[in-house]
Amino acid sequence: MPQTIKPFLLSVLLGISFSDYFIPNFKNIDHKDQILVTAKNTQDELKSPSPNSSPSFSPESSAEKLEYQRLMQVLDDRQLSKLSFSEVIQTISAQFIGTSYREGLLDQGESEKLFVSLTEFDCVLFVETVLAFSRNLLTANPSYENFVQNIQEVRYEDGKLDGYCSRLHYFSEWIRDNQKRGIVSDRTEELGGIPLNKTLNFMSSHWQKYPRLKNSKANYQCILAMEKRMELEMRSQPLRYIPSRKIHSIYPLLKSGDIIAVVTDLKGLDTTHTGLVYLTAKDTSFIHASPSGKVKIAPDLQRYVERVDHAIGIMVVRPINP
């Protein structure tokens, strides 16, 4: 067994969410190039989600709602309407700098419930939260309840929570589903992405390490069916990625708030980490919930990816203005 994936398998044994598996060995990375900065009061904008079905589980944490209201007050004084959607996303992401990283957040409890957090993240939860918050800000009614609905819409297939298997576990499937519904646009191919030729079957191949698969034959069968469906989709529309050595060449084409997924060569797996492009006057940086402990900024995107074990490149996904 490769030494680098031992922490990853330990996470599996502990029953951690698949979204946490996107960071197999990040705790062992030298994070000298990362900057932990104080969240600045930057500028931003305001809107509400489509009147889809209400969330299957409405988070009742008063602490989360109070934190949402606090963030809204911080943003209320900004000239939000003057910003582009990509700038809105970057502004929202900056509000979470320093927020704690925690594994296993989505797999608490025995059944699938809609989990919402503004005070701790894993890497995917961070991306989903920033995207949902930004979309909600641009609606006519940016209430906490509508923010919660936005979380459900980006996390689950067709925006509907219907058990464990409705969650978009593989990030490439997350991209496909959200693109289908006009929430994001996969820009990897137009940025020079090359085919990613691999079969995605990590979950079914390691079913005994996932408590919700080990304890439920129905969950295992639907995950297996999902993987087979993904395989058929990839035959007609292969996944693509931009090799690590070429990331620097696409810097001029990236926008603030573009979603970055770090692609891996680990068998059966597509990506190992996610975050967002963070642009400054000098740098094309990467803001993410780091397993080293907190939401932080890596000053140079390519340099960061090149230091990730098993990383071979990135996917680039652009959020669409609602």
Task: List the topology elements.
Layout: H1 6-13, H2 62-76, H3 85-95, E1 100-101, E2 120-121, H4 123-137, H5 144-155, H6 171-180, E3 184-186, E4 194-195, H7 202-205, H8 211-214, H9 217-236, E5 240-243, E6 259-264, E7 271-279, E8 284-289, E9 295-298, H10 301-306, E10 311-319
Parallel strand pairs: 1-2
Antiparallel strand pairs: 3-10, 4-5, 5-10, 6-7, 6-10, 7-8, 8-9
DSSP summary, beta strand count: 10
Query: Count of DSSP helices?
Result: 10
**Outline, from the CA principal axes?**
globular
Largest sheet: 8 strands, antiparallel
Which residues form runs of ≥5 with pLDDT under 50? 1-54
Query: Which CATH class is shown?
Result: Mainly Alpha
Mean model confidence by pLDDT? 85
Oligomer: single chain
Order of helices and strands: HHHEEHHHEEHHHEEEEEHE
Rg calculated over all Cα atoms: 18 Å
Structural class comes to alpha+beta
CATH superfamily: Putative xylanase like domain
Strand proportion, as a percent range, falls in 5-15%
Give helix % range: 25-40%
Write a short abstract of this structure.
With 322 residues, the chain is of the alpha+beta class.
Structure characterization notes:
The chain has one domain (3-201, 229-319): Putative xylanase like domain (Putative xylanase fold). The chain has helices at residues 6-13, 62-76, 85-95, 123-137, 144-155, 171-180, 202-205, 211-214, 217-236, 301-306, and strands at residues 100-101, 120-121, 184-186, 194-195, 240-243, 259-264, 271-279, 284-289, 295-298, 311-319. The chain is built from ten helices and ten strands. The termini are far apart. The model is unreliable at 1-54 (pLDDT under 50). Helix 3 crosses helix 4 (123-137) and helix 4 (123-137) crosses helix 5. It has 322 residues and is of the alpha+beta class. The strands form two sheets. Strands 3, 4, 5, 6, 7, 8, 9 and 10 form an eight-stranded antiparallel β-sheet that branches. A two-stranded parallel ribbon has the order 1-2.
